[in-house]
Amino acid sequence: MNAKEFLQSIPGKVKPEENPGLNTALHFDFDDEQYTLDIKDGAVSFAEGFIGDPEITLKAKADDFAKIAAGDMNPMTAMMFGKLKVSNPAAMMKYAKMLGFM
Fold first, then answer.
1. SS3 state of residue 7
2. pTM greater than 0.85
3. Distances (CA, A) of 82 to 11, 22, 60, 76, 86
4. How far from chain centre, in Å, is Cα 14?
């Protein structure tokens, strides 16, 4: 599964009732590809491009992000080696489980 396919799969996995009142945007920057996960009242939607004011921006090569998503690369190790850059690491911890990283 590539990075885009992984992000497209997230809205179907997240139950809005588990995140009531959650409103935010997460941006994903993969060199020449940009995506947004927009969260409104806990419901997640996927969009191409950057939409809204993000709480977090993740920047990585699409291949590296796909490895992280597949569990083949540890996200913390990827951050330490500069393969994954997170604009707000503390806030990212809130969304790690939702994204399937934990």
1. helix
2. yes
3. 28, 29, 9, 10, 10
4. 13
The pair of structure tokens assigned to 42 is 């806990």
- Dist CA 1 CA 45 (whole Å): 19
The CA distances from residue 40 to 2, 3, 31, 37, 45, in Å, are 25, 22, 26, 10, 8
pLDDT of residue 102: 61
Query: Which residues have C-beta within 8 Å of that of residue 21, sequence separation ≥ 6?
Result: 41, 42
> In the sheet that 43-48 helps form, which strands lie side by side, from edge to edge?
43-48, 33-40, 24-30, 56-60, 84-86
Mean pLDDT of the chain: 92
Q: What is the Cα gyration radius of the chain?
A: 13
Closest C-alpha among 6, 86, 73, 88 to residue 44: 6
